[in-house]
Amino acid sequence: MMKLYDFPGAPNPRRVKIFAEEKNITLELINCDMTKREHKSPEFLKKNPSGKIPVLELDDGRCISESIPICRYLENLVPDPNLFGEDAFEISFIESRNRHIELELWTQIGTSWVNGPIVGSMGLFKQIPDAKKASDKNVVAYYARLDSEFSSSEYVAGDKFTVADITLLSAIDFASSMVDLKPDEGLENLSRWHKQILSRPSSKV
Question: Which among 89, 96, 135, 175 could disulfide-bond with 111, CB atoms 3.0 to 4.6 Å apart, if both were Cys?
Fold first, then answer.
């Protein structure tokens, strides 16, 4: 059985777990305790020199790192249901929507996270309060953009559930629970989307 190096609450491994659940693929979850810096150990760095999770370890010991490449591997193993697109336009459009979320939302959530109180209590590095103020503002603005987009689109990339919805769900849930950046309840279209995605069994992982 393939192994997924995971840590409870970590958003990027969750993306893979949701994706695998949608595909009905069973993965053996291996706890990589980030509080003990296990992801920076010499043994783990042999699996991923970047020292980050998730990592998918195949039965033969080969490893794949980064959420989207891992999901692409799983998509190739189990093509249906399709989550990355089927024709040239759909594949490219879903990829572009996913990248929007990664580059324009996730980066800002990440800045707020590393400059926030939880990471600050770890004392790993000097924080920049002004950076957090700016990124908090950018996250709120992106939520408003999403609310507008969902007024005419059921899902992130059109009329079907895709990997881009998984990326957004993991971003919003992490931001809400760990970074104090929950979307305003007045964003009705975004709220509708979020409730719809949370109703899927895969979201419970």
Answer: 135
Domain count, the chain: 2
Q: Where does a domain end: 77, 102, 127?
A: 77
**Nearest alpha-carbon partner for 171 in 161, 181, 157:** 181
Amino acid 42: pLDDT: 95
* Paired tokens of 41: 């150990």
DSSP class of 132: H
**Residue 107 is inside which H or E element, if any?**
helix 107-114
C-beta of residue 66 within 8 angstroms of C-beta of residue 163: no
Strand order in the sheet with 55-57: 28-31, 3-6, 55-57, 63-65
- The helix (H) or strand (E) run that includes residue 28 is strand 28-31
pLDDT value at residue 121: 74
The predicted model scores a pTM of: 0.95
